[in-house]
Amino acid sequence: IFTKSTKIKDFVYHWKAITHYYIETSDDKAPVTDTNIPSHLEQMLDILVQEENERESGETGPCMEYLLHHKILETLYTLGKADCPPGMKQQVLVFYTKLLGRIRQPLLPHINVHRPVQKLIRLCGEVLATPTENEEIQFLCIVCAKLKQDPYLVNFFLENKMKSLGSKGVPNVISEDTLKGQDSLSTDTGQSRQPEELSGATGMEQTEVEDEPPHQMDHLSTSLDNLSVTSLPEASVVRPNQDYNLVNSLLNLTRSPDGRIAVKACEGLMLLVSLPEPAAAKCLTQSTCLCELLTDRLASLYKALPQSVDPLDIETVEAINWGLDSYSHKEDASAFPGKRALISFISWSDYCDQLIKEAQKTAAVALAKAVHERFFIGVMEPQLMQTSEMGILTSTALLHRIVRQVTSDVLLQEMVFFILGEQREPETLAEISRHPLRHRCFQYNLFYCIMTLRMFEHLLQKPNEHILYNLVLRNLEERNYTEYKPLCPEDKDVVENGLIAGAVDLEEDPLFTDISPENTLPNQEWLSSSPPATPDHPKNDGKTEVHKIVNSFLCLVPDDAKSSYHVEGTGYDTYLRDAHRQFRDYCAICLRWEWPGSPKALEKCNLEAAFFEGHFLKVLFDRMGRILDQPYDVNLQVTSVLSRLSLFPHPHIHEYLLDPYVNLAPGCRSLFSVIVRVVGDLMLRIQRIQDFTPKLLLVRKRLLGLEPEGPIIDHITLLEGVIVLEEFCKELAAIAFVKYHASSTP
Questions:
Q1: Which of 163, 418, 671, 685 has minimal Cβ neighbours within 10 Å of its Cβ?
Q2: What is the residue range of 344's domain?
Q3: Are 414 and 456 in a shared domain?
C-alpha cells in the first residue's frame, strides 16, 4: 500500500528503472516480455490511478505532474516507434490506452498528452495484419470515446497542413518538435491549453528537472537518438493529407483482414463523424479519404456480385446489421450462389446509411453526395440502363433493397434525386429525356413492372416530400384536370340514383365508434382533406356527402360481378380499421410538409394549361385499365400503390383520386373514370362466360385458401381481375370514409 510520501518516490523509481534499461543494456534484440518494462509500466499506472482516487476531483497529484512535466509519454512514443526492445510498441499502446481509460481527469488538453497521442495515432494502421493491430484499435477507440465526451478536444487533433518537406516518405506535416528542436526529455509546465491557445504557442517554458542528474539525461538522450526509428513499410493506402490522422488510421484499419478489428474501426469512425465541431466535419470530408473509402468499397462489393442473382433472393435475404457481418455458407440451409457477396454488399450499404445518419450535418451532406456521384451515378446507373434483361432485373432489385433499408434523411434525399431527378415543374408527355432513369422505371416487362412498383411503394412510405411532389403533386398543382362548371341536373340524378342502391348505412356501421376522437390525432394534426365544397354538391352536415362518395365506390362493381358477400369476413368494414391506421401513419409523415388544408381556389388556378397526369400516374392508370387482362400479381401491386397514394392527406390528391363528382376537363381521366371504363368492359364480357358466378366464387375461395387447387378454370385472368377490382373499390371507399371522418372530427 502506497503512502502519499512514497507514491512519488515509487513512481520515479519505476520510470528510472525503464530509462536505465536503455542506458545499460547493449542487447536490444531480446523481446520486451523478457524484461521488467511491462511490470514497471503497470506499476506506474496503478500508482496514478490510486493517487487520483485519494485526491479531490480534478486535482492533479505529484505523480501525474511528474508524468506531464517530464514528458514521459513523449519518451514512450519514441521507444514505441522504434519498437525497441521488440514488442515495445505493443506495451506503449497498452499504457496509453489504460492511462486514458482509467484516469478520470481530462488529460488530452495537456500539450504533453495530446501531442504524443497525436504522434502515436500516426503509427496506427501503417501496416495491416501487424501483431499490434488489436492494441492499435483499442487505443484509437479510447481516443474516440474521449472526444465523444468532450467534442471540443477534437481541435487538438486537426493538424495544420504545411508544405511538403521535399523528400519522399516524409509526412507533409512538420511536428512541433521539429519546429522547436526539443529533445525527448525537455520539460515544460505541462499545463492544459485551449485549442486556440495551442495553435499560437511558440515555445515552452524550461524548468530544472529535480532528481535527474544531467549526465544521466545525456546518456538516455544519446541512447534514444541511436535507436532505429525506421517504421515497417506502410500499408498500400494513400494519405493525401495528414490533417486528421485519427480518421486516416481508422480508415486503414477498416481494411484489416481481421473482421473484429475492421468493425471496431468502423465504430470509431461512427463516433468521429458525429462530433458537432464544424472544423472537424470539414476536415473529415475534405482532407481524408472517408468519402472515397465508403464509395469505393460500395462499388467493389457491388461489382463482386454475380450478374445472375435471383431478384427474389435479393429481396428476401435476411437483413444484416453492418457490425454483424458474419456468414457461414456451410451452416446455411438456404444458401445460393452469391449469397456471401450479397450479404457483404447489403451490410456495407447499411453501414454507409448509419454513418451518414449519425454524422454532423455538413459532413452528412458531403458523404451522401459522394455516394450519389461516385456510386449511384458512377456504378449503379450504367447497370440500371443496360440492355440485358437479367442485368436490369438484378440491378433494379438491388436498388430496391437499398431503398427499403435507407434510414438517413440526407442519403434518402440523394437517392430520390438519383431515381426521380430534381425536377418540380409539371411534366409533359414528351418529357422523357430529362431523366432517363426515371422513365426507364415506368416501362419494360411485367416482372420488371412489379419490381419497380414495389420500389415506388416503399419510396412512398419514406419521409421525403420530393418523392410525392415529383411523382404526382407537381402535375395536380393547378387543378387543371377540372372544368369549372356544375353537372347537369340529369347527370347528377343518374349518378346519385344509380349508385344509392345497396348502399351501406355508415351511421350504423359497428366500426364508426372505433374511429372515435380519442383514437385520432387532434384535428390540426390531421391535415384536412375532405372533398371540396363545389356548387353542385355543397357540404351541409357532411354525412350525406361522405355517403355519396363511399357508395359511388362500393356500387361501381355490379352485383352480378361481386363474390365477397358469399364468403364470410370479406365485407367493406374489414378495410376500415386498416385504412384508419394507415392514414394516421401517413399524416404523421406529412405533418412537417405544410400542405394546405383545402384545394387551391379555382379562380387562382391556371385551368387553361394542358393537363398531363404525369408518367407515374399514367403507368398506374394504364395498368388499372388492363386489370381484367393482366396477371394477378401485377393487379395486386398496381392497386396497392394506388391505395397508398389515395391515403396521402393532400386536398388535390384526394380530389383527383377519391372524388367521383369532380368535373373532369375534356380529355382528362381520374381514377374513378378509369374504373368506370373497366366496369363497362366487364359488363360486356361476363355475358359471354358460361357459369360466371360459380366460377368467380370458386376462384375467390382458391385465392383465400378455402378450396384446394383443382383443374384450370377458363378465363382465370379475368376472374381474378374482377375479384381484385371489387376489393380495390371497397378499399377506396374505406379510405374516403376514414379521411372524411378524420377531417371532420372536432
A1: 163
A2: 288-326+334-420
A3: no
